[in-house]
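cron nightly-structures :: item 1 of 1
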Amino acid sequence: MEGDGSGMQPSPEEEAEAQRKNCIFCHIISGQVQSKRIYEDESCVGILDINPANPGHVLLLPREHHAIMPQMADPDVRHLFVAAKAISASLLKALGAEGTDIFVANGTTAGQKAPHVMIHIIPRKKGDGIAAFDAKPKKAAPAELAAIAARLRPHAYRMMGKEPPAEKALGEAASPVPPQPTTMDAEFTEEKDTSDGMDGKDRKDGKGDDATVGLDDIAKVLFR
């Protein structure tokens, strides 16, 4: 982003304010642009997509502007997904949906169209012609899986505010992967979550202890 003509780069606050002013979804949230709202509270707004994959396709938006979900504070992410759960249940009951797709696209490569976080909640029915997540499975060699796990594991633990366990404590060899249920076996169940996975510590900045690149910088790369 260009400066104000004085040769000085804008501050992060000024850059964020400029993004909000140019964000169509921020305008929808503020009421400057009309929408069909199906839910709202102090943290989020749910609207009907004007170009739905299926009738009842909902976009659930955080009121606070963030380009990608990793920039959001942990309590806000939790609240957003609790709301998504409620809307998913509403689609099943009110519209007679036989299932729902719930997903977030982070970055244009992942299919994100606008730099404002949103959860897509799409009602599904058998034979609706939608091929959600039509990814072709690829066979991964054990050595490749091990290499990826070794790179990813320490970051995942530290982003959650924890130290990664020692390799011997992981018990990977002693714990075979359980069989995955087929579509016919799957059932809708509601479980009460009694743990936030954070050991009582909300990491509001979304950064791990060893982070060397900020999430704001990552978001800029994703939307080049």
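cron nightly-structures :: done
The radius of gyration is 20 Å.
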